[in-house]
Amino acid sequence: MFKKRNNIKEIEEGKYLEPKFDKNGLIPVITTDNKTGDILMHGYMNDEAFIKTIETKEAHYWSRSRNSIWHKGQTSGFVQIVKEIRIDDDQDSVWLSVDIGDGASCHVGYRSCFYRSVPLGKIKNAKNIKIKFKESKKIFDPKKVYKDEPNPTKI
Amino acid sequence: MFKKRNNIKEIEEGKYLEPKFDKNGLIPVITTDNKTGDILMHGYMNDEAFIKTIETKEAHYWSRSRNSIWHKGQTSGFVQIVKEIRIDDDQDSVWLSVDIGDGASCHVGYRSCFYRSVPLGKIKNAKNIKIKFKESKKIFDPKKVYKDEPNPTKI
């Protein structure tokens, strides 16, 4: 679908989009809030989701739990308006800078999926590392929004 | 090594670090510049790299090209001082906020690995999408720094 990768110099310093999808056909995607710079989520796209995101300017991902294209916000209403897309040096990961207004991006209800912080320093017991909440307020109630949909979090 | 994952509510809203490593034993890591908020790189850690990062407060990754622990900056001198670590809702990805001073994080020489932007809008031919450079100045000369080391970028 995209330009074929056949030259490392071209991939790193050329001017064509030549994304690398892994053996499952996916490329990792980092999504940040264009106003605060905070990371909202980490997801994946297949080639079709990547094309749809570029063309519609709304973030589309590949849902690994549902095994299908995922137009973010279809259920919750929190569509992500894409302001910029960046690709990295070896073109195997994507950065989306998006506008979500006052919305949320996390299925648990928080604005960012990264709502907990890991303490730094000497670890006494790795089985007992306590993490701290950095967001205290949920933007929405997942039970009301997602109703009986299965939780994408897997053990 | 870490606390065992056995309860979704605990994983999402509990207070223990219970990271999920994929079948290769890796977890994706997003690294941002703590001053500008820009994404510097996207990498991976195994459990040992994660522990070392927490304890030393210097970013350690798993190098998939060299198949070994990678203390970022060992060759280039551009060590990443970790200011904060966040974990996401289902604990399968990590956000490192780091201080790299005036340094660089990209092996091509740029400050960020995400130095090119993908244009938005209707695609005429996906094999011919031109990307734009957003950084113009290399912080270092990779040939001088890495000498004969193999390029981590693979086709």
Structure described in brief:
Chain A is of the alpha+beta class. Helix content of chain A is 14%, strand content 26%. The first copy, chain A, starts with 7 loop residues before the first helix and ends in a 9-residue tail after the last helix.
Write the layout of secondary structure elements.
2 copies of one chain form a homodimer.
Chain A: H1 8-13, E1 27-33, E2 39-45, H2 47-56, E3 60-63, E4 68-71, E5 81-87, E6 94-99, E7 116-118, E8 132-133, H3 142-146
Parallel strand pairs in A: 1-6
Antiparallel strand pairs in A: 1-2, 3-4, 5-6, 7-8
Q: Can you walk through the features of this model?
A:
2 copies of one chain form a homodimer. By secondary structure, chain A is of the alpha+beta class. The first copy, chain A, is 14% helix and 26% strand. The mean pLDDT of chain A is 96. Chain A is globular, with a radius of gyration of 17 Å. In chain A, the strands form 3 sheets. The first copy, chain A, has a 4-stranded mixed β-sheet with strand order 2-1-6-5. The first copy, chain A, has a two-stranded antiparallel ribbon with strand order 3-4. In chain A, strands 7-8 form a two-stranded antiparallel ribbon. Chain A has 3 helices and 8 strands, in the order αββαββββββα. Chains A and B meet through helix 1, strand 1, strand 2, helix 2 and strand 5 of A and helix 1, strand 1, strand 2, helix 2 and strand 5 of B.
